[in-house]
Amino acid sequence: MTSTTTAPPTHRDTTLARRVSSFLHAHPGVRLTLLLTAPLTWLGVVYIVALALLLVTAFWSTDSFTGDIDTSFTLENIVSLFTESLYQTVTLRTLLVAITVTVIDVLVALPIAFYMAKVASPRTKRMLMILVLMPLWASYLVKVYAWRSVLAENGLLSWLVAPVGGDTPGYGVTATIIAISYLWLPFVILPIHAGMERVPDSLLEASSDLGARSWRTLFSVVLPLAVPAIIAGTIFSFALTLGDYITVRIVGGTSQMLGNLVYDNVGSANNLPLASAIALIPIAIIFLYLFIVRRSGALNNL
Amino acid sequence: MIRTMTRGRAAAVIAGAAALSLVLAGCGTSNGGGKGGEAVEKLGENEGKISILAWPALAEDGTNDPSVDWVTPFEEATGCQAEIKTFGTSDEAFSLMKTGSYDVVSASGDASLRMVAAGIVQPVNTDLLKNYDDIYDYLKDKPWNTVDGESYGVPHGYGANVLLYDKTAFPEAPTSWDVVFDKASQNSGKITAYDSPIYIADAAVYLMAHQPELGIENPYSLDQKQFDAAIDLLKQQRAHVSEYWADYLKEVQSFQSGATVAGTSWQVIQNTLDAEGGNTAVTLPEEGATGWSDTWMISSKTEAPNCSYAWLDYIASPEANAAATAYFGEAPSSQAACDFRDDCDVYHAGDAEYADQIWYWTTPIEECLDGRTDVTCVDYAAWTKAWQEIKG
Q1: Residue B24's pLDDT is what?
Q2: ipTM score of complex
Q3: Which terminus has fewer CB within 10 Å in chain A: N or C?
Q4: Helix H segments across A115-219?
């Protein structure tokens, strides 16, 4: 029945390709299935199965001496997450770093994004866009090691601020915040820029026609409209910072973040179950954050 | 409407994940480790290939630097084609060996005992190795390579974790580890330490000399009270630490920049600093020091025992051992190897007295290694946990 309805009667060419093509044309469901099976399987295997494995492993334990994983159910890892001060301290530190980085990035990104979207000429805008994207061309490690020498004792920063009596903060939490803020800045600028571009110029004109000064327009018209885009940007910086462990190893001095605990438990302690349990902390925080911001419509801006 | 759909879909995903978790949990099985079997009695034909798991720079076949190659001569002499895999930490070596895909491994003392206990390495019949006799006696029959009188491998090379200091900050060479412990406050914020749980033993070595009332006999066998004392010492030290190092180039850099002026180190780091005109020196403090002694071991699941024995014998031969240990920056395992090196004095090779001051890395286990039976000792899992707590 399908062939009679879909194949054009005048068509004499009935090669295989032609027949397949007309079959697919008649069956949008099959078409969609073929198109999406591969990416969906990938998503399923990589995300859902990995998450499920993580969740399951968190309830196992490791034989400390032979390193064998004991697959009997235990709540020990989860309990220790809540009872031991180490995990609370490190979670709080990680959150502090993530929030500070996010605030700094938004504060820096807002004027740049606004200027690019609403003020700059098309030529300047292109130049700025290239400048914003340029750091992404260099490797993550190269950038962090560059910060390591910038922040070093007698490094570039201490040389720069020495005339005004300042000194480098040295390696530690402050250095980590500086380096991570730098790393994720492009990821915050881009969504905010995209969001501001979508604010119609006519609204800005209307605002000034009604007598609002530029600051008033900025705070009462542009910013409220850009809030979803700003939140979209914060999701990047917040989530990326929660998972970072390399920057803090290089410029963090003696500090640890959650990622380091996971890394050390996988690598040196060979305790996969505890590492999984710790990895659930940032996942939980991110889910909570996404749950809170979901109503703002920010998720449509990603 | 849209929200309900999303919520429904999310619920489906979570339900799916939960169902999957249950299935996966059900699939799990536990199997215990066993002994690694019996040592080989006599050797046969070489199998034609061998898979080597080694610390970086211990088995070089010219891929990193064409002029650094002692694996190719082995392949030519024995007909065993070698495949080399390197690892970064003792724990990584342990996990990789557990897969059974490697024939031989260079295990440090903090991994070797675990490998023996887990039954993933086999006893080695040293009579079959003609180069074994030449090896320094003070490296043989040690707790990290011999269990119940049975040898589990061939010593490769060894070195001490020495005290590295900046000559400007310390015009006179320090003679004690107190510069990084009790007197660390004099250089607060400029002290470094090795970023590994095994560093707790360094604190224990210090306490052995300075708090004899704790009765520490062996820094790798600490009962809870002794362990807590070591942890307290390290927590006090942390206030003065600029950063912990695990990558030796990171320590080279922090000494060059002056961010660090004293801390535990390896001879090879001093050599690197020296070559770049650094103002530093190393010393072995009076309390003694921790150190490493690597052992070549054979997997209990190997399908190439003959090639494995051939490799153990070859890497213990003077020329190959000299090349490998010189490249890594450690003392060789035999006096004969020193004929092929000109820097044996720097590493105190053959100096049994120097070697006796070194407490070689050993895996801490519940059963006290110093022979005490009335207490249980703190095991490595607890060391790891405590190390994370020290870093905070």
Answers
A1: 46
A2: 0.72
A3: N
A4: 122-133, 140-150, 156-161, 173-197, 201-209, 214-217
